[in-house]
Amino acid sequence: MGGDYLAGPQGLLRSINARAVLDVIDREGPLGRPEITRATGLSKTTVAQALRELVAREVVDEAGTDTARRGPAATLYRVAPRCAFGLGVDIGHLRVRVAVVDAAGEVLARAEAPAPRRDAAALADAVTALASECAERAGTGLAAVGQAVIGVPAIVGRDGRGIRRAYGLPQGGQGLVEAIERGLPMPLLLENDVNLAAVAEQRFGACADVGDFVLLGVGVGLGAGIVLGGRLHRGFAGGAGEVGFLPHPATELGTEVLGARRIAEQARAAGIAGRPSPRELFESARDGDERALAVVDATARRIAHVAASIALVIEPELFVLGGAVGANADLLLGRVRHHLARDAAPLPITVIPSGVPEDAVLRGAAWLARHHARERAFAAATGAPPQDADPGGRPYDTDSAGRPRGSRKAAPGKEDTT
Amino acid sequence: MGGDYLAGPQGLLRSINARAVLDVIDREGPLGRPEITRATGLSKTTVAQALRELVAREVVDEAGTDTARRGPAATLYRVAPRCAFGLGVDIGHLRVRVAVVDAAGEVLARAEAPAPRRDAAALADAVTALASECAERAGTGLAAVGQAVIGVPAIVGRDGRGIRRAYGLPQGGQGLVEAIERGLPMPLLLENDVNLAAVAEQRFGACADVGDFVLLGVGVGLGAGIVLGGRLHRGFAGGAGEVGFLPHPATELGTEVLGARRIAEQARAAGIAGRPSPRELFESARDGDERALAVVDATARRIAHVAASIALVIEPELFVLGGAVGANADLLLGRVRHHLARDAAPLPITVIPSGVPEDAVLRGAAWLARHHARERAFAAATGAPPQDADPGGRPYDTDSAGRPRGSRKAAPGKEDTT
DNA sequence: ACCCTGAGTAGGAAAGTTTCCGACCTACTC
DNA sequence: GAGTAGGTCGGAAACTTTCCTACTCAGGGT
Q: For residue A409, with 0-12 CB atoms within 10 Å meaning exposed, 13-18 middle and 19 or more buried, which class applies?
């Protein structure tokens, strides 16, 4: 429920304090006891007690000593890197990528392979094979990995399992989760790839301290990863951010405004022969090819159009240009800004290039997996309810505070609830 | 709120438990001690202690007894209606409305008057005069009112004070807050009118248990009140929901898709003479006037267009049709649905009529004012940090998981490390 | 029809347990 | 020698369990 404090026995207090200590250590890196004491406001004694417990439960490590001050060396504490592992998977149109990370966020192993496009079973096999390989190389083994997050080019239901609309998955993604699940021992969570890119942007990129932003993923299709209040916004059934289908004057309804296909089409229209890939087109544009530049400009214009529409609805603090096509910020960014300034909304709109050029989806997936795995380990260790159940895994809890209650008389004995 | 548990002394536990008791009482209406004990999981003794404190602080009342069971009569506890009062104001284009509500949500007094349109000072005077009158009639006096929320037809900054774009305020709303502030003793909060209508919808209307919904306010202009995760979404600078400016094929950029002016224009185009108001137009349509019906249909079509665009961005659970024009659900709803089904997005979209036909903005404002006033009273009484800092009043507390952020502490007497 | 008794409930008080905090102490390093 | 890290002990705060009293309804006997 929305926000009730949970009442509880004194034990609750211990949980809370343990969690607070853990959080400080997590945030501020290796820390000595006195610093933890200052940061939490707890007493030395309590901090010591909490640390004893956390170390015993192996979520916190001693990590060397701090001899900066005079006096005895302070032992430093950190989150134990091996207290949780996460498995990130990026199922792309062409390739499958997998990474295993530890609780500290360190990438222990990474692997990739071509994506089998025949059927879901083959795809699942590829994923599990890569995962096993990675877990092996990471020295953990699959069993130690607490959570897997799998990025797919599809609309994913909020349960993190159902695939509602797959853009490039064999058999529309039918049976994919189940097949992968059979091959992997840990809990799985599916997630839209653009959403994961947004997570990566938030955690490793330019949006570290931005509460509301939108990642525009321009690639095979166009999608938006929407982060509001620091959390992914998925929509009622996971369909938020499907901005590729926003109405556009020059595009018929129900087709995508922008994407590889659309770009190719524009290239033909511009009189460019052959069937250059977007990559080649942008190369030509960089070489000064006028027609390619025209296509680039048209692309930028559509991006601007979409960004303006999004801004009118949710007004994020900024937009990030991502995706394979969006990565050509050198060519696109100026033009997008130009079009935005020229005919866009009454609101000023900021667009910046992605801060995660490589493996954005994979890194986002791995981060989220690590987050969940860690959260579970932390909860188990502190006895506290999970801290932030999820900046990307489950629905918001609905607000429960202060619902209207009709005025009720003090009539004895009647107890109507509705 | 986002994140960290705050560590603290044992006193914290008392706060937490007091708050839990208070919440249960608030949610479940008048309650006896045994029920509170069951609901919170606390022991009888602790509940008794908490209640003693809450009653002493006058946020909780004894309200009769419950003699349903056999045995001694259980005394019932409820939130004291007089522990906090809220003042709601709706500054409309034509009229100003004011209401005073108590902590139970009861409307104690309501008043309205024509809105002076000359200058902000006159408008402010009208507001304060009505407010004084209401507070008088309510028997509380202005000084007892803990919070005022003022709905305006404008984009309001997230601080709840700045007016960024006023649609129908004298002098663009310049100096309005300050002028009202001089006349009212309690803290003020400005809020966009459509946002308040959305709050009303959430609290009194059809969206009581809906986490994500959008209120489409169709009136003098077109705006959307966006509720995500049970909270108002205002956007980075309060500009979210300005969907009136969404691009529309048949409308030039920078002008509103829909609104009284646009409707009048369409009426002219349809060959309707005179300058019928939207109300008259809808009346004619009800009488079967073909040309008026055409205008209605065009209006519905544009509403559908806007709803489809919004849905592609945030995919709310449902849309609510509100506002003076939107209130003609009998004529509009079917047509909107028709157009949505015909050419809309890949997503199914649900549209329902408003459940708050009267005074939506005013009621939303009053609810929010009451909420803040109450929250403050509760916080003071329990010593706990505010429960839900705001389902509509201030920025999100910030991010949640795992990002650098100063820790908070509840311990006395040490210097704060932020 | 009336009364008496038994059972179940509300509320309170005392003893016990958990947890945090402040103060004091030791050991270590500059 | 001074300042700091870390540990231990007694005290205070807060919750729980247990016990106790008072109250009221139900049901059966008179």
A: exposed
Quickly give B378 CA vs C7 C1' distance in Å: 40
Contact A398 B209 (CB under 8 A): yes
User: Coil, strand or helix: which one is A353?
Assistant: strand
Lowest mean pLDDT among A193-197, A365-369, A405-409, B234-238: A405-409
| Burial (CB count <10 Å: 0-12, 13-18, 19+), residue A93 | middle
Handedness of CA B85, B91, B92, B96 (dihedral sign): positive
Phi, psi of A251, rounded to the nearest 5 degrees: -130, 135
User: Can you give the pLDDT at residue B6?
Assistant: 64
Is A398 a residue whose pLDDT tops 50? no
Domain boundaries, chain A: 10-79, 84-197+360-382, 206-353
Q: Nearest-CA neighbor of B107 among B98, B117, B115?
A: B98
CB contact, 8 Å: A412 with chain B? yes
Nearest alpha carbon to residue B89 among B123, B118, B62, B60: B123
- d(Cα A123, Cα A114) in Å, to the nearest integer? 9
Task: Tell me the fold of B10-79.
Answer: Arc Repressor Mutant, subunit A (1.10.10)
Cα–Cα distance list, A143 to A102, A136, A183 (Å) = 14, 11, 11
Q: Which two tokens stand for residue A329?
A: 């910020």
Contact of B271 with chain A, judged by CB distance below 8 Å, is answered with no
pLDDT band of A403, cuts 50, 70, 90: very low
Residue B81: closest C-alpha in chain A: A407
Give per-residue pLDDT as tens, A174-187. Answer: 889 999 999 999 99
Q: Which CATH architecture has domain B84-197+360-372?
A: 2-Layer Sandwich (3.30)
Distance from CA of B414 to the nearest CA of A (A): 7
Residue numbers in chain B where pLDDT is lower than 70: 1-7, 249-258, 343-346, 384-418
Phi first, then psi: what are they for B56, rounded to 5°? -60, -35
Asked whether the beta carbons of residue A13 and residue B17 sit closer than 8 angstroms, the reply is: no
Those of residues 382-411 in B touching chain A at CB distance below 8 A are 384, 387-388, 391, 395-396, 398-405, 407, 409-411
Q: What is the CATH number of domain A206-353?
A: 3.30.420.40
